[in-house]
Specification:
The protein is of the alpha/beta class. The chain is built from 13 helices and 13 strands. The strands form three sheets. An eight-stranded parallel barrel has the order 3-4-7-8-9-10-12-13, surrounded by five helices. Strands 5-6-11 form a three-stranded antiparallel sheet. The protein has a two-stranded antiparallel sheet with strand order 1-2. The structure holds flavin mononucleotide (FMN). The site of flavin mononucleotide (FMN) has 28 residues, from strand 4, strand 6, strand 11 and helix 12. Flavin mononucleotide binds next to strand 4, strand 6, strand 11 and helix 12.
């Protein structure tokens, strides 16, 4: 059934298909019976405690799929225990020119250069006030394209403030390849500055009686070992709680799709099958180097139970999906959620 749906969806441009599928699901879920049926079919309650949060299961939707927190109920119906919304920026922005999302069918991969298209923190925070119960929501935050890197920390703080009361955890995204220079924020000094600002802000919130919200850092798979060592040191020093490994890669190595097609697509982050080994190596390196002291969310190339297990063996507690969901469908969510510890 999913194969048939995919064939139809793949006849459309990728971004059109994305919203078409979500809106069809939304229309169907207007019928409470259909929602209950979907939950019955796809949801597995296999709870996991992570960073003091009760996750209904270990499968999360990776950032970028529901950037504006518009489809939380729909993803609950598909069986997800958590959704990472965003990347959210302080002001709304349209993102890069279309087309900006490309399928590489032979590789079961995607190249995207969306560029943080989103409704902005104010609108998204308002929307989240009515978020559904029973789903963990992470807030993935970034900076506006027009904000120079010297002022980036203020953008992250702005989003942190705006979302603090309406999300369960935060992810600081300094690893998207689609915002010029963003990944330079993974360097020691700017990164330490951003993270300590957020930790300080959180402390004042806790003193005011607000709940503790864990902060994680999302990193690129393209960091060298030396850079990863710095990241580990910064995570420990800044006293944030964890790492999301990894974002998309800028590498185009080992693709089955012919290079003329790949070159014609141009810049963007590559995700899917091809990313799996590299993203998992990064995860494992962090876990081993930190002696399993850093809580980890594993993302990148998961498209089977076997690969989810490998992420878990490499140190991940929560497993996120994006491209695997598109190519394999929601049955994958259920299969992974059912994996025992
Ligand atoms: C179209 C698209 C948009 C994305 N947007 C974001 C984003 O806004 N913020 C972010 O942190 N990651 C974003 N990602 C990266 C995913 O969250 C994930 O880290 C990456 O795709 C690797 O996982 P996958 O191989 O399962 O897709 C995006 C990925 C895709 C394919």
């Amino acid at each position: 059934m999913y194969r048939f749906i995919v064939r139809v969806l793949f006849l459309m441009p990728a971004e059109t298909a994305h919203y078409f599928a979500l809106n069809c699901l939304r229309a169907a879920l207007h019928f409470p019976f259909f929602y209950m049926l979907m939950r019955r079919l796809f949801f597995v309650y296999q709870p996991v405690e992570f960073l003091g949060i009760h996750f209904p299961n270990r499968v999360g939707l990776a950032a970028g799929f529901d950037k504006n927190a518009k489809y939380l109920k729909e993803f609950m119906a598909l069986g997800f225990g958590s959704v990472e919304i965003g990347t959210v920026t302080p002001k709304p922005q349209p993102g890069n020119a279309k087309p900006r999302l490309f399928r590489l069918l032979k590789d079961e991969a995607i190249i995207n250069r969306m560029g943080f298209n989103n409704d902005g923190v104010e609108v998204i925070a308002t929307r989240l006030k009515n978020r559904p119960q029973g789903l963990v929501v992470g807030g993935n935050i970034g900076k506006n394209k027009v904000t120079p890197n010297e002022d980036a920390a203020r953008d992250y703080e702005w989003c942190f403030e705006g979302l603090y009361d309406v999300v369960d955890y935060f992810v600081v995204n300094v690893s998207s390849p689609n915002t010029p220079n963003l990944r330079a924020l993974q360097d020691k000094e700017p990164l330490m500055h951003i993270l300590s600002l957020l930790v300080k802000k959180r402390l004042t919130y806790i003193e005011q009686g607000k709940l503790f919200k864990p902060i994680l850092l999302k990193i690129a798979p393209d960091l060298t070992r030396e850079q990863l060592n710095d990241v580990i040191a910064i995570v420990c020093e800044s006293k944030i709680e964890g790492i999301v490994a990894t974002n998309t890669t800028i590498s185009r190595d080992n693709l089955l799709t012919d290079s003329a097609t790949v070159n014609a697509i141009g810049a963007g982050g590559l995700s899917g099958k091809i990313l799996f080994n590299h993203a998992t190596e990064v995860l494992q390196y962090i876990n081993q180097t930190s002696k399993s002291q850093i809580p980890l969310i594993g993302v990148g190339g998961v498209d089977s139970v076997e690969k989810a297990k490998q992420k878990m063996d490499a140190g991940a507690t929560i497993i996120q999906l994006y491209t695997g969901l598109i190519y394999k469908g929601p049955a994958l969510v259920k299969q992974i959620a059912g994996v025992k510890n």
